[in-house]
Design brief:
Largest sheet: 7 strands, parallel
Radius of gyration: 20 Å
Number of strands: 13
Order of helices and strands: EHEEHEHEHEEHEEEHEHEHHEH
Length: about 325
C-alpha cells in the first residue's frame, strides 16, 4: 500500500485516465494504494467513468480552473492525455503542447511539490517525422519549462494489450493467416505491454528523486523485426501467418488517398504522410542506457506472454 506513516493516503491527479493506457494506469495506482483523481471531459461523459474507483473532475486540458482543481492537494500529477491523431498540426499542438503547458502551470500554482510524471512517446525523439512526433516533443519541452519541480518523462515504445484497438488489426491478420508489414527486414521496433507501462508510471510516482527522460520497452531493447512480431502474433492464436511486404510507395499512396477522403468526409485520418514516415523510420530500438534504472522499474512481460494474454482477451470478448 502507498499510505505513509501519518496515515495520509496519497493522491494521484491523472489526465488521460479513460484512454486505453489510462485505464491500466488507474488500475495500477489504485492497487498500489493511491487515491486517484481523474480529469474527464463532461460532454459526453466517458462510459468507463462509473466503473472507476476515482474522484472525477469535469473539464479538459484547456480549462485552467479544472486543472487547478485536479492538481490541488495532489502528491503526484500524472499526464497521460494526448492526441494520437488529429485533423491538423494546430490540433495536435493545441492538446499535446498547450495542454501540457496548462497542466504544468496548474500544478506549479496549487501543488508545487507534487511529483510530475509525463507519459510521452518514442516518437518524440524524432520530431522531424510527423506533426504528432513534433507536438509530443514540444509538449515535453514546455512541461519541463513550466514545472515547479523535477519531472520524469516516460517514452513508451509501441504499446499493446487488452482493449487496444491500434494493434488489434495485427491479431486480426494473424488469425486470417497473413500479416501485411511495411518497411524492410532490418527494421527494429520495440514493444511493451500496457501493464508494464502502468507499473512504470507507479514506480516513478513513488520515486521523485529519479528524473529525466526514459524510454519504456520490454526487455528486448534491441526491438523486434516484423518477422518476429508476426511469429509471436501467430503463436498467440495458434496460426502460422505469412508475412506479406507492403511496398513503401504503395503505403504513401494509401496515406494520400486516406487524407483526401478524410477532407471530404470530415473524419480524422490515422494514416497520414507523417504516420507513414514514422512507420518507415526503421529504427525504433532502444538501449539499456535509455531505459529507467533497474532499481526503479523493470519490464515483467515478454512478447510471447503479452501477445498470448492479449489474444485471449480479444477472443473472450468476441473481438476475434
Amino acid at each position: 500500500m502507498n499510505t505513509p506513516k501519518d496515515g495520509h493516503q496519497r493522491i494521484a491527479a491523472v489526465t488521460g485516465g479513460t484512454g486505453f493506457l489510462g485505464r491500466f494506469i488507474v488500475a495500477a495506482l489504485t492497487k498500489a494504494g493511491w487515491k486517484v483523481r481523474l480529469l474527464v471531459r463532461s460532454e459526453p461523459l466517458h462510459p468507463l467513468v462509473p466503473e472507476l474507483d476515482a474522484e472525477i473532475i469535469l473539464g479538459d486540458l484547456s480549462d485552467q480552473a479544472a486543472l487547478e482543481k485536479l492538481c490541488l492537494g495532489a502528491d503526484a500529477v500524472i499526464h497521460a492525455a494526448g492526441l494520437i491523431k488529429a485533423k491538423s498540426r494546430e490540433a495536435f499542438y493545441r492538446v499535446n503542447e498547450h495542454g501540457s503547458a496548462n497542466l504544468a502551470k496548474a500544478s506549479a500554482k496549487v501543488a508545487p511539490n507534487a511529483r510530475l510524471v509525463m507519459v510521452s512517446s518514442f516518437a518524440a525523439r524524432a520530431p522531424e517525422l510527423s506533426d504528432y512526433a513534433a507536438s509530443k516533443r514540444a509538449g515535453e519541452e514546455i512541461l519541463l519549462k513550466n514545472a515547479a519541480s523535477p519531472v520524469a518523462i516516460l517514452r513508451p515504445s509501441a504499446i499493446y494489450g487488452r482493449w487496444d484497438k491500434e494493434t488489434f488489426p495485427l491479431f486480426q491478420m494473424a488469425a486470417k493467416g497473413a500479416i501485411f508489414s511495411p518497411g524492410s527486414d532490418s527494421d527494429r521496433i520495440c514493444l511493451v505491454c500496457a501493464d508494464d507501462v502502468a507499473q512504470a508510471v507507479v514506480a516513478f510516482s513513488c520515486n521523485p528523486e529519479v528524473n529525466g527522460v526514459f524510454e519504456i520497452s520490454d526487455a528486448n531493447v534491441d526491438g523486434y523485426t516484423w518477422s518476429q512480431i508476426a511469429k509471436a502474433a501467430g503463436k498467440s492464436l495458434k496460426t502460422t501467418p505469412k508475412l506479406v511486404k507492403i511496398p513503401s510507395p504503395l503505403l504513401r499512396i494509401v496515406a494520400l488517398a486516406t487524407q483526401a477522403i478524410s477532407r471530404i468526409t470530415g473524419n480524422t485520418p490515422i494514416l497520414t504522410q507523417g504516420k507513414v514516415r514514422e512507420i518507415l523510420h526503421g529504427d525504433w530500438s532502444s538501449s539499456p542506457q535509455k531505459q529507467p534504472p533497474q532499481a526503479v522499474w523493470q519490464p515483467q512481460v515478454d512478447i510471447e506472454q503479452g501477445f498470448i494474454q492479449t489474444a485471449e482477451w480479444y477472443q473472450k470478448h468476441d473481438w476475434l
